[in-house]
Amino acid sequence: MAYRIKVPPRELPTDEAHLVGSLEQWLMDMKKYRWSLVAGVVVLVVAGSVVAAVLWQNAESARKAQDLEREATLHYLMRPLNDPKKVESNMQEAIALYKKITVEYPNTPSAPLAMFGLGNALLETNQLDAAIDAYTRLISTYGSNKPLVDLARQKLAYAYLMKGDVAQAAQSYSAVLNNPEALNRDQAMFELARLDESQSRFDEALKRYQELIKSYPNSPFANEAVLREKILDARKSHEAAAASSSDQKP
Fold it and tell me: Which pTM was predicted?
């Protein structure tokens, strides 16, 4: 009599059964939400394309603005001094290009430089109100560019002085002086001293010259400040002697 070996039915281990069940559930979920998944992938692709397009456009804008700024600066700097008509033509071309950058590419790295160049070109062509407007817009729009803003404040003070507005000029110089990190702080201090001197505020002027000599001994303005200090000291001594002589008269 033949014996039959009974083979017990194979049961999957618990972990393997769980894995198979999870896989089947995942496949079912994939079928159920496939259109949502497809839509999500499409959205990601579109979003990536938009970001890439924006980055490319920004790069193109920056390149165009840089090219225009370079061309404008060449017109501004390469002025034949013996040809007044060519000088005027170059300046007008530079002004037009600088304006184009500030209007069409205001968010590019070249825009602050273009605004500064515009103010300088307008100042040199004696368009004082327009120059003041350009410097003021640079300060308000690109305030994070501290070195350029301090230079713009200095040039703004020159423009106000050319208009005869000493108070506004002093305010612009003071704004530079109030920034401890300003690279042109020594010049602003010197110019404020000169303004004090021109307004007959000799004691204030002397204090500023002395502070400049002490704080910035290597500044090119320090030598001039030493000379002005000596002149003011001599003036002060002369006035004191004259006052003393007057008091001794019967």
Answer: 0.75
Number of H helices, E strands in the chain: 10, 0
Angstrom distances, CA of residue 114 to CA of 86, 104, 136, 178? 21, 11, 13, 25
| Residue range 10-50, pLDDT digits in tens | 554 545 555 555 666 666 666 666 666 566 666 666 666 66
Please give the structure tokens belonging to residue 134: 């350009």
Contact residues for 151 (Cβ-Cβ < 8 A; gap 6+): 116, 184
User: What three-state secondary structure class fits 152?
Assistant: helix
CA distance 233 to 244: 16
Within 10 angstroms of residue 159's Cβ, the number of other Cβ atoms is: 25
Is the Cβ–Cβ distance between 131 and 95 less than 8 Å? no
